Amino acid sequence: MVLKRAAIRFFSIACFCMALIQSPALARDMVSIKGSIVNMRSGPSTRSDVMWELKRGYPLQVLKRKGSWLQVQDFENDKGWVAKSLTNRKPHYIVKASVANMRSGPGTGYRIVGKSERYDLLRTRGAKSDWVQVERSDGVKGWVAKRLLWGW
C-alpha cells in the first residue's frame, strides 16, 4: 500500500513537472525588434531572401538559435530568421483583435480612453491580472485586455 501511494505521488509530480515544462506561457522566449526596420529572412544568413520588414518594437517568439541568428515566429505563426543583434528584450504587444478598447484602468468598468486596431504595435508599461497597461506610438496610454493582444 505504501509503495502504491509513493508510485502515485511520483507519477503526479512527474506529470505536473512535464506540464510546466511544456506550457507555452511559461516557456515562451520573446524578443522585440531593436532597429527601426529589420529584415526577416528565410534562413540564418544575410544572403537568404527577405520575407518581411519588421518595425521597431515588433514582438517575436524565439523558436531556435543558430550562431548570431534567431528563428522567430510572429502572432500569425509566420516564421523566419532575424539577426540577434537587431533584437532586444523590451516588451511590446501586437493587437490581434480587430479593435481593442484602451481603458483608464484594468477592467471593463473603466472609461475608454482610446482604441487600437489589428496590427497596432503597443509598448508595454505594466500588467495587472488579465490586463496590460500599454502605450501607442502617438503617446496614448491605457489598459487593454490581454486576450486581445499577443506579445509580452
TrEMBL record:
Ranges of residues in domain SH3b: 90-152
Keyword Glycoprotein: no
Superkingdom as given in the UniProt entry: Bacteria
Keyword Plastid set for record: no
Keywords: Signal
UniProt xrefs under InterPro entries: Cell_Wall_Dynamics_Protein, DUF1058, SH3-like_bac-type
N-terminal signal peptide: 1-27
Designated name of the protein: Peptide-binding protein
Organism: Candidatus Accumulibacter meliphilus
